[in-house]
Design a protein that fits this description.
The complex is a heterodimer of chains A (561) and B (336). In chain A, 75% of the residues lie in helices and 0% in strands. With 561 residues, chain A is mostly helical. Chain A has two domains: 277 residues, MetI-like (MetI-like fold, Orthogonal Bundle), CATH 1.10.3720; 258 residues, MetI-like (MetI-like fold, Orthogonal Bundle). Chain B is of the alpha/beta class. Chain B folds into two domains: 178 residues, D-Maltodextrin-Binding Protein, domain 2; 144 residues, 3-Layer(aba) Sandwich (D-Maltodextrin-Binding Protein, domain 2). In chain B, strands 1, 2, 3, 4, 5, 6, 7, 8, 9, 10, 11 and 12 form a twelve-stranded mixed β-sheet that branches. The termini of chain B are far apart. The chains are: A mainly alpha (561), B alpha/beta (336). At the A-B interface, helix 7, helix 13, helix 14, helix 18 and helix 20 of A face helix 1, helix 2, strand 2, helix 4 and strand 7 of B. Chain B: Its main location: periplasm. Chain B: One of its GO terms (cellular component) is outer membrane-bounded periplasmic space.
């Protein structure tokens, strides 16, 4: 950390001349850094598609295999993703409100838990869910033994997919919504309390206006997660009727080695996602609220609404926690400790943690730069100097999602080919590709968590900072960073855990010498060793929860440094 | 942030370590295979140790996500690939592999091999085989189906987990099995079996896990799967349902790449692979049958191979030409 006199000095010299003018125009370094990232992300995607098409030149291609089937895929994926978004948002809003209005012990831990499911490999969550809701699951077993009643429902099919997606994304939505509610200014709460607003009126006049601006961005993120989530869909989907693009691409790459078709499929998925996403990426934060997030609410719910909310929260908690418990429970055995002492495990753990730290740092940097650019735009709008604000917002918003709409297999393939073109050893570059890919993959979630805070601050302090003649760096140093630390900590944890759980792009680069925890798990699963897989799954879950709980603290310790 | 620095330092250290290990004077034989073969519990490490005793060389197994993934990797790398051998392709993709023109004829003596079906190829060396079969839990199911007709006639309550033929070897094996056993009746039978299909997973491991968790009554796997549970876990309740029309044979193959600069060494390795020493490693690491009769016989608790008349296979060419159609028909018939 720079000491105060030094930074004051620096800012003086920065203020001296041309930058003063720059601060008034949206075209300045803060804005340009965001544009640079946009350019970088799209260039990467373009390059990936280009090298694949290029490599495909000497290979036979069968475009007719792109049959009517694709429209079916598109329709099914869209319906599934749209329903998932709907349920996730509803669950997310109610959970956040309940969590916000109720004061209880262990609230911090509950909040830390809430993002855990989202970043685990989906196969772990799916099996956790099956352990509770499946044919041999707890629910049906309990009902059979207690009431001698066989619950005759199947989790396979669209229902299972929606249940799983709601569980994963609903808790993530709740986490973000809660954050927004938690920064409601105390004055507003006191006013509401003194007006004696009913629980319903409170929602309409106090909470809903806070939550609403976050919805488009969040909905877009969840939509993409669900549209592209394939492992879960394939496991719980009941059959290829609910398949996604990923299978079609798998077929093109692996079975037919038709790289043209793979690139075309990837491009159409990207295009389709962008059509849906771009309008949403245009979301605008209208909220003016800045408050100190505290965990204990000064206006807690009371009376019947307290009971109703408590019951609601308990139901959600039971739904969310039982699959996680199931994962842990399966791993509790005498084999756990000896397994953790194995060299293979320790190596994989080390590799996973290293990759996760680096890619989380990268995620944070990228997300911060994008958020800064968005804040700049917001400020320019506030000051009335913005040119084409909608277009700019769209340009800055699109890259956040673009990467996510790219199938992992196509990215892996593209990176692999680029590595070959650059005559680099695929084995040594693999780690860096994994880091970059993980960082970009976590970017949508990271931005959804960070950008609103920066825009809010620009909205609030835009005019003040201009009257104080603060430079872009000063605004970051004294306003944005200190007031967004909490979100930054969460973004880092998100990036970290996302990377911990990911397996996607590295398959082509893989060697036996290099392994991460999810890999270890998939390997064990593929060799009858489901017990080992259960151990790794539980360890991953524990690590993820620990990260969400511990990592944000790193960002608060230095607050007064 | 210092956190990042630590990460970077560790990472740089890690990658130098990896590259240092690779640099050695002896020639290196690089074998691309599927992950399970190269894994610590797979045949890879023992074969490596056994062959390195006499070869004055280093064997390097590189595991890809699947055997077809290993082939595609070599294909993408082109003539510059480090791979000398692709190991683990099976008879259902042999025609496709041959068409890539990446492989060169081997000179391994295969006269001692005893396979359940006739298989001849100048480019590929068979090194183990197995039979696709449905595996069930005998403590829950007393009378498993003994044919595709019986399976089709079962009530909807009875659920099987199978794999997608486009992404999984056993999944494709099942489609070929039905074709080899039933031919023209295949579509009708698939339509009747459709209600019994719990889910079609991307890979073998997902559906096998569903079965072990009790979600499915039967899972498509291998006749040797129960052997694993008997020998490695001392659990004898899992059995393979014997189908009267016979079982489809999967033969795993290895081939030498045209681009290899270690062709002699590669031939030596394949010779070792099908020798007594190499083959005795296979049963309890890869859970498949050895291609030569072992001097000491199969390990205790290991299933015996099926009689020849119960072994089904379609020849490489038929498979190569019709796979696409078989797969489309399969999906059409199960109503997807």
């Amino acid at each position: 950390m720079t000491s105060l006199p030094q930074s004051a000095n620096k800012s003086k010299s920065i203020n001296a001349s041309p930058h003063k003018a720059a601060a008034h125009s949206p075209i300045n370094w803060r804005f340009i850094s965001g544009l640079a990232i946009t350019f970088f992300v799209f260039a990467t995607i373009f390059l990936v598609l280009f090298v694949i098409v290029n490599a495909a030149q000497n290979l036979p291609s069968n475009q007719s295999a792109l049959s009517a089937n694709i429209w079916h895929l598109l329709r099914m994926s869209t319906i599934q993703a749209a329903l998932s978004v709907l349920f996730s948002l509803i669950v997310g809003i109610f959970t956040a409100v309940a969590l916000y209005r109720l004061n209880f012990r262990g609230k911090n831990f509950a909040i830390a838990l809430m993002s855990a499911g989202l970043v685990l490999p989906t196969i772990i969550v799916a099996f956790g869910l099956l352990a509770v809701w499946g044919r041999a699951g707890w629910l049906r077993t309990a009902s059979k033994t207690l009431f001698d009643q066989d619950l005759n429902f199947s989790i396979f099919g669209l229902v299972g997919i929606l249940m799983a997606h709601t569980l994963l994304n609903g808790s993530f939505a709740a986490r973000l919504f809660y954050d927004r509610l938690a920064s409601t200014p105390t004055t507003k709460l006191k006013l509401g309390r003194s007006l004696n607003l009913s629980p319903f009126a409170r929602f309409i006049y106090v909470e809903w206006p806070t939550l609403k601006p976050a919805i488009p961005g969040l909905a877009a993120t969840i939509f993409l997660m669900c549209f592209t989530s394939f492992a879960l869909v394939l496991l719980l989907g009941g059959g290829p009727a609910n398949a996604t693009f990923e299978v079609a691409i798998f077929e093109a790459v692996k079975l037919d080695f038709d790289l043209n078709r793979a690139a075309l499929l990837a491009a159409s998925q990207l295009l389709f996602c962008l059509i849906i996403i771009v309008p949403a990426a245009n979301w605008n934060t209208k909220s003016m609220m800045i408050g100190k997030p505290g965990t204990q609410n000064i206006w807690p719910a009371f009376g019947p609404s307290k009971w109703a909310l408590t019951i609601l929260l308990l139901v959600v908690a039971a739904y969310y926690l039982t699959p996680l418990f199931a994962i842990i429970q399966k791993a509790i055995s005498p084999a756990l400790l000896p397994y953790m002492a194995k060299e293979k495990f320790l190596n994989a753990l080390q590799a996973s943690l290293t990759i996760a730290s680096v890619s989380a740092s990268l995620t944070l940097v990228l997300a911060t730069l994008l958020a800064v650019a968005r804040a700049e735009l917001k400020r320019a709008e506030k000051l009335g100097t913005a040119r084409f604000p909608r277009l700019c917002r769209m340009i800055l918003g699109a890259p956040i999602f673009a990467y996510m709409a790219m199938p992992a297999m196509v990215l892996g393939l593209g990176f692999f080919l680029i590595t070959r073109h650059l005559a680099l050893s695929t084995q040594s570059v693999g780690v860096w590709v994994l880091i970059l890919a993980n960082a970009l993959l976590a970017l949508p979630l990271a931005s959804a968590a960070l950008t609103p805070s920066f825009e809010k601050l620009a909205n609030r302090y835009g005019k003040l900072s201009m009257s104080l003649n603060m430079s872009g760096w000063q605004r970051f140093r004294y306003i944005e960073w200190p007031l967004s630390r909490r979100e930054a900590g969460y973004v880092f944890a998100l990036g970290f855990t996302f990377s911990l759980g990911d397996v996607g792009v590295i398959a082509l680069f893989g060697t036996d010498e290099f392994s991460t925890l999810p890999w270890l798990m998939y390997r064990a699963l593929g060799s009858y060793r489901s017990n080992d897989a259960a151990l790794v799954a539980a360890i991953l879950l524990a690590l993820v929860i620990l990260s969400f709980w511990a990592l944000p603290h790193l960002f608060r310790i230095n607050r007064r440094a | 942030m210092s956190f990042q620095k630590i990460g970077l330092a560790a990472l740089v250290g890690f990658s130098t370590l990896v590259s240092a290990a690779a640099a050695q004077d002896k020639p290196t034989l690089t074998i691309y295979t599927y992950d399970g073969f190269a894994a610590e519990w797979g045949p890879g490490p023992q074969l490596k140790a056994g062959f390195e005793e006499n070869c004055e060389c280093t064997v390097d197994f590189v595991g890809a996500d699947s055997s077809i993934g290993a082939l595609r990797k070599a294909q993408l790398e082109g003539p510059g690939t480090q791979a000398d051998i692709i190991l683990g392709l099976d008879t259902s993709v042999a025609a496709e592999a041959k068409n890539t023109e990446l492989f060169v004829d081997h000179n391994v003596d295969l006269s001692a091999l005893e396979l359940p079906v006739d298989y001849a190829s100048s480019q590929f060396v068979p090194f183990d085989y197995g039979y696709f079969a449905f595996v069930y839990d005998s403590s829950k199911i007393e009378t498993p189906p003994t044919s595709f007709e019986e399976l089709a006639a079962l009530s909807e309550e009875f659920k099987i987990a199978i794999q997608d033929p486009r992404s999984s070897t056993p999944g494709l094996g099942l489609v070929l099995w039905m074709q080899a056993a039933k031919g023209d009746q295949a579509d009708k039978l698939w339509a009747d079996i459709a209600p019994n299909i719990l889910t079609v997973t991307k890979g073998w491991s997902e559906s096998y896990s569903l079965f072990l968790e009790g979600e499915a009554d039967m899972v498509l796997s291998y006749t040797s799967s129960p052997s694993y549970h008997r020998i490695a876990e001392e659990e004898s309740k899992y059995l393979a349902a014997q189908f009267e029309e016979g079982h489809y044979v999967q033969i795993e193959l290895a081939g030498i790449l045209e681009s290899s600069d270690q062709k002699q060494l590669a031939n030596d390795f394949l010779t070792y692979l099908v020798s007594q020493a190499g083959q005795s490693i296979i049963p309890t690491t890869n859970w498949m049958f050895p291609v030569v009769p072992l001097d000491n016989g199969l390990p205790e608790g290991f299933d015996t191979p099926l009689p020849k008349e119960n072994s089904l296979i379609l020849d490489d060419e038929t498979v190569g030409q019709n796979t696409k159609k078989y797969i489309d028909d399969f999906f059409a018939a199960i109503g997807q």
